Amino acid sequence: MAVDWQQTPLAFVDLETTGGRPGSSRILEIGVVFVWPDGRVEHYSQLVNPASYVPAMITQLTGITAEMVAEQPNFESLAANLFARLSGTLFIAHNARFDYGFLRAEFGRAGYRLRVPVVCTVKLARKLFPEWPRHNLDTIIDRLQLQCQHRHRAWDDADLLYQFWQKIIAQVSLERVRACVDELLVEPKIPSHLPADLCDDLVESSGVYYFYAANNSLLYIGKSRHIKQRVLEHFSRAERDAKAADLIRQTQRITFTETVGEWGALLREARLVKRLQPLFNQKLKTTEPVGIRLADTKDAGVTLEIAAAEELMSEPTGEVYGFFKNQAQAKRALTEISRAHQLCAVALGLERAHGGSCFAYQLKACKGVCVWEEPAIKHSLRVKLALASLKVAAWPYAGAVAVEEKNWLGEHEWHVFHHWCHLGSTQDVNELTDLAQLTPMWDIDIYYLIKKILIKLPLASISALPVIESSP
């Protein structure tokens, strides 16, 4: 977005909010330092009644209590005046998409659509000072010796950004700052049939996103740790891939659901694709995978049964091995294993006896359990060793577990698992016990996701519903 530097007012903005996501959290405080083209500097500071709960963590961080905002105006009553002031400015903020996203959401609820060029001072600091190991606001304060009386209050933090701007112009030069800002303002290409301000709505956080056609039918569901970046990748891929281009041509609307972290996004995507069956999703569409059930017999032998994976996991009897896309793939795998380990195809149920023995025995490729030359117990042991790499691990806990996921904003979400099934997710710790009582519904993609999640965590013997903490 081109900016006329001689005539563009600057707005250094900081917000305090009740949480980290514009859809579910609200603004508590607004701080803006306006620098007008004629050199005037104007300060705007306002507490806002969020009409919602003020979390204790937010009060601890900012000092803002529910009592402080109870008698303050709501955002809607402030919207007209603030919108007029911000319109036409260069919007400058630290982690700017956070502040800009919140204001766009609040303005949208009040009936306004804010669209101004945005500069993130984190990205600007990285361009100007690539040698710094970190570029958070506390680092900038320390490096440039900025002054702040009340850190994590909106006006004070907005003033820090104005101080930062003044420092870099003095130390680096206005021309260099302008060049870096112009680079940051280069907008990605958006397909002409989609809204020009689509990028302003997309968040730079974890979640699930949805592509819809003109008739509101769902075309595609995706997930990402950075929704905006991933959606833009779809656009660039469409320039060189026919299938991607077809998806974008049909897409008329894009929405998203934010999650606390990547695990929540992965679990939601897997569940929603199976349930909603979007046209362009293939990998996670409903399949009917199979597994192998191995059971011991009374005569020290073993029997193998190929059955639906869902059935094997829902009724866990015997040892389970797998998984395979279909019956044919499972049989091929068993055949290859039996040949590699000189197992008996008759004993495994893969073929009928030929003259009292398996065909492999006649080729001296079976050790003869089918004609009693090899003890059944020894053959059974060799079968289990041959299949060991395919064995499905038993659920390592005594009952359901809750895995806690948290992000850099301090938000938490708990994912409840039992018997390799996802029972549900919640941001309310009081709902964990209820989720743990739900009936497990097994799904192969969820199974593999849970394995990936739990492998990052220490396994322990747990008899009740614990909360397993993860790193942000």
Describe this protein's structure.
This protein has 18 helices and 15 strands. The chain folds into 4 domains: 10-184, Ribonuclease H-like superfamily/Ribonuclease H (Nucleotidyltransferase, domain 5); 198-276, GIY-YIG endonuclease; 290-390, no CATH class; 401-468, no CATH class. The longest helix has 18 residues, at 154-171. With 472 residues, it is α+β, with helices and mostly antiparallel strands. The protein has helices at 56-62, 66-69, 75-86, 96-109, 121-128, 137-144, 154-171, 174-184, 198-201, 227-237, 242-250, 262-276, 309-314, 327-340, 359-362, 376-387, 432-436, 444-455, and strands at residues 10-17, 27-35, 41-47, 90-93, 118-120, 207-212, 218-224, 253-258, 290-296, 302-308, 319-324, 401-406, 412-418, 421-426, 467-468. The model is unreliable at 459-464 (pLDDT under 50). Strands 3-2-1-4-5 form a 5-stranded mixed β-sheet. Strands 14-13-12-15 form a 4-stranded mixed β-sheet.
